[in-house]
Task: inverse folding
């Protein structure tokens, strides 16, 4: 009996790829297909690791290395993936965000940080007809005019690079009647990824996103 159940489970698993397909659909302007999104927000520099956020812990630093990061993003829509799994179709959006971050530390004058990333935005949440919701995650590069003090504070014995990997994460909410207007919670993560250096910094923030 157990052997039959195992064979049946393996057969079902083997059949999944045959029923699944992914197609890239390039973005075309017109109708409700908006070409760009603009985001503005403010994040607070923390001394936390990513694992702390997963456990709902964060520490906004009030010392010299703390402060705020002001974020301005223009994001170009590239298209979507039509992902068919059995009888279900999902359409994650592909975007190319360009972001200017202004670090305003407690003990230094503000300085710029430039970012470009490739983002995937999940839009197929079952409750979106009641509360329009999206979740995005990306990967890219970040170049800072100065090494943030928090980066130095968290890694005092390591040389630090102004060039990092950028890992933006965001969650947005909006009214279904006006999905172009969205409140946003986001995480800014910059890390050397064991290429430029080891470790990095994290900032958590709130903002506004407008699709146009």
Result:
């Amino acid at each position: 009996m157990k052997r039959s159940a195992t064979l049946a489970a393996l057969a079902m698993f083997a059949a999944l790829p045959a029923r699944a397909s992914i197609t890239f659909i390039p973005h075309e302007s017109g109708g409700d297909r908006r070409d760009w999104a603009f985001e503005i927000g403010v994040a607070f520099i923390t001394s936390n690791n990513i694992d702390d956020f997963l456990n709902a812990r964060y520490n906004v630093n009030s010392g010299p290395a703390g402060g705020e990061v002001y974020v301005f993003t223009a994001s170009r829509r590239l298209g979507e993936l039509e992902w068919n799994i059995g009888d279900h179709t999902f359409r994650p959006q592909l975007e190319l965000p360009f972001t200017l971050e202004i670090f305003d530390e407690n003990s230094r004058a503000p300085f710029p940080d430039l970012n470009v990333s490739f983002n995937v935005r999940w839009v197929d949440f079952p409750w979106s007809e009641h509360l329009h919701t999206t979740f995005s995650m990306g990967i890219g590069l970040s170049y800072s005019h100065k090494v943030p003090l928090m980066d130095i504070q968290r890694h005092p014995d390591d040389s630090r690079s102004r060039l990092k990997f950028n890992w933006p994460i965001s969650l947005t909410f909006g009214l279904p009647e006006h999905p172009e207007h969205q409140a946003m919670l986001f995480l800014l993560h910059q890390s050397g990824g064991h290429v430029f250096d080891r470790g990095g910094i994290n900032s958590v923030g709130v903002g506004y996103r407008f699709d146009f």
Notes: DSSP finds three helices and eleven strands in the chain. The CA atoms of residues 64 and 108 lie 8 Å apart.
